[in-house]
Amino acid sequence: AMDAAPPPTSPAGLSAYVAVSQLLGLTLLGITGAWLGRYRGGVAWHSPLQFNAHPLCMVLGMVFLQGDALLVYRVFRHEAKCSTKALHALLHGLALLIALVGIVAVFESHRAKGIPDMYSLHSWCGMATFVLYLLQWCLGCGFFLFPRASFSLRGWYKPQHIFFGITLFILSITSCLLGITEMLLFKISDSYSHFVPEGILANTLGVLLVAFGLVVGYVLTREEWKRPPLAEELALSMDFKTLTEGESPGG
């Protein structure tokens, strides 16, 4: 009997970098929870602690889950494209939903305390990032998950989708860094310069946010780690082009 073909493997180093990204991501969540629990009183809805849901939701949704959604095509290299695509969209959608909860939390908290909205650089950058992220998700679903566009139009939009995906991930981390700084200046402005434990913990969170972004960005930009198209996917792409453009794939 002929030996079975060996299972496909990931490129050298990919699994290690993905594991590091997940370790950093979980550490981010742990430090965010520790900061809010130890120094800000914890998280509770419809209470003076409602605001604290905002940083927790943003780190979870707009950083950790968004980063994992971007890594889907590197991690699930040999699974069916439709399943990978659905998981990619699902993680992005979940990130949007959690971020929306965080946005509602901050607006309701401001209203209850009489604090004005949307005046700071953090709020401008954060809201712009969320709106563009929502638009990116809708366009991605329209072009790729429930495609109605022609083969050539999808081919044109794909590089734009990839570029804005990475750009929005960078903007999300940047907005979080601005938010951490703003929160520290509001809460501990008198003692921040004295290297108090809360300031050190929050600064550590910021450094880890940057580290997470760098690791995810490195994985995404390694050309040899991109997901290779399966043979059946190439055939389906050619059939789709023939059906939508009325020409042979070689024509």
From TrEMBL:
Gene3D superfamilies: 1.20.120.1770. Keywords: Cytoplasmic vesicle, Electron transport, Heme, Iron, Membrane, Metal-binding, Translocase, Transmembrane, Transmembrane helix, Transport. SMART domains: B561. GO terms for cellular component: chromaffin granule membrane; lysosomal membrane. Its cofactor is heme b. It catalyses: monodehydro-L-ascorbate radical(out) + L-ascorbate(in) = monodehydro-L-ascorbate radical(in) + L-ascorbate(out). It is found in: Cytoplasmic vesicle, Secretory vesicle, Chromaffin granule membrane. Its main location: membrane. The chain crosses the membrane at residues 12-36, 56-76, 88-107, 127-149, 161-180, 200-220. It is a multi-pass membrane protein. InterPro entries: CYB561/CYBRD1-like (IPR043205), Cyt_b561/ferric_Rdtase_TM (IPR006593). It comes from the Eukaryota. GO terms for molecular function: metal ion binding; oxidoreductase activity. Residues 20-221 form the Cytochrome b561 domain. Transmembrane reductase that uses ascorbate as an electron donor in the cytoplasm and transfers electrons across membranes to reduce monodehydro-L-ascorbate radical in the lumen of secretory vesicles. It is therefore involved the regeneration and homeostasis within secretory vesicles of ascorbate which in turn provides reducing equivalents needed to support the activity of intravesicular enzymes. This is Transmembrane ascorbate-dependent reductase CYB561. The gene is Cyb561.
